[in-house]
Write a structure and sequence with these properties.
alpha/beta, serine acetyltransferase, domain 1, UDP N-Acetylglucosamine Acyltransferase, domain 1, 2 domains, 5-stranded parallel β-sheet, 10 helices, about 10% strand
Length: about 325
């Protein structure tokens, strides 16, 4: 460790300069307000929910029908309290931005609303397990390299990303602020798959490999769709008002109908773009207009050059290669 104490004498002044920016640039600090949702608590909630959705695969093993009810009951009880607290914080923060519209709300109102939403969400878990079982089966059916459903649940990032998406989507539908995005961004950081919780995704989706997949907020995806790595389902443009500000709430992202396959690194953009059912979109395709059902969209075959060499070294090969 460095021992020059004279250099450390600069730190108080540096601290003062940094703190001064908290007043000058107030848009990126949250001081003097009520508590925000805890990112660590939301991650813990995600892990508890995964434990309920896929019992026996996570932190607690050696589960069987005689003891699983106790384990799940304990998790549900804890989730009730964790969700209520985090939901209340998110509702309170949302209210602070619109306090003039509801001036008489107090902490009890936020707590009661949060508890009601937590109960509604937990009631949706049985149906979500049925939907996610179809997603796991779709991954197994769609990948000949998979040896078992256990391997799918343990190892496939697409399944983990879709699991968190489906949980976050239910919170999005319930109108819970902040937390759905916190959940989806945690899954994004783990899997490399970015699914906005507002997207509408049908049954039996399979995201194969997955890294770099982006699914925007207003996407609509039908049943039995398969996406490969690097696929972007994005916005073509952002409409703006007379002041140049982005107009929110419009459909900006494409619709992918049922039984469509989109291969690696394809980009499909625009809220009016519809990919008809049973279509195939090939690798690296760029689409900004709709295609009819049963359509194959592909790039023209690239022109490749082949040149025989007499065992050149790496530098010679690099010299002959042109982009």
């Amino acid at each position: 460790m460095a021992t020059d104490t004279r250099l450390k004498e600069q730190l108080p002044d540096l601290t003062e300069r940094i703190v001064a920016t908290y007043s000058e640039v107030g848009t990126i600090n949250h001081l003097g307000h009520t508590k925000l949702p805890s990112y660590e608590a939301v991650i813990e909630v995600c892990r508890d929910l995964q434990e309920i959705i896929y019992p026996g695969y996570g932190r607690r093993q050696n589960l069987h029908l005689a003891n699983v009810a106790y384990h799940v009951g304990d998790l549900i009880d804890g989730l009730h309290d964790k969700l209520t607290l985090q939901f209340a914080r998110s509702f309170r923060h949302e209210y602070e931005g619109h306090a003039d519209e509801q001036p008489d709300l107090d902490d009890k109102d936020f707590e009661a609303r949060a508890q009601q939403k937590a109960i509604e969400f937990l009631h949706r878990l049985p149906d979500l397990r049925v939907v996610l079982a179809d997603d796991v089966q779709a991954a197994y059916d769609g990948d000949p390299a998979a040896k078992s459903l256990d391997e799918i649940i343990f190892c496939y990032p697409g399944v983990e990303a879709v699991t968190i998406y489906r949980l976050a989507h239910e919170l999005y539908r319930l109108g819970v602020p902040f937390i759905p995005r916190m959940m989806s961004e945690w899954a994004h950081s783990k899997t490399g798959i970015d699914i906005h919780p507002g997207a509408m995704i049908g049954r039996s989706i399979f995201i194969d490999h997955g890294t770099g997949v982006v699914i925007g907020e207003t996407c609509e995806i039908g049943d039995r769709v398969k996406l490969y790595q690097g696929v972007t389902l994005g916005a073509l443009s952002f409409p703006k008002d007379e002041h140049g500000r982005v107009i929110r709430g419009h459909k900006r992202h494409p619709t992918i109908e049922g039984d469509v396959i989109v291969y690696a690194n394809a980009t499909i953009l625009g809220g009016a773009t519809v990919i008809g059912h049973h279509s195939i979109v090939g690798s690296s395709v760029w689409l900004t207009r709709s295609v009819a059902p049963y359509t194959l969209v592909s790039m023209e075959k690239p022109s490749l050059r082949y040149k025989e060499t007499d065992s050149p070294g790496p530098s010679e090969l690099e010299g002959n290669y042109q982009i």
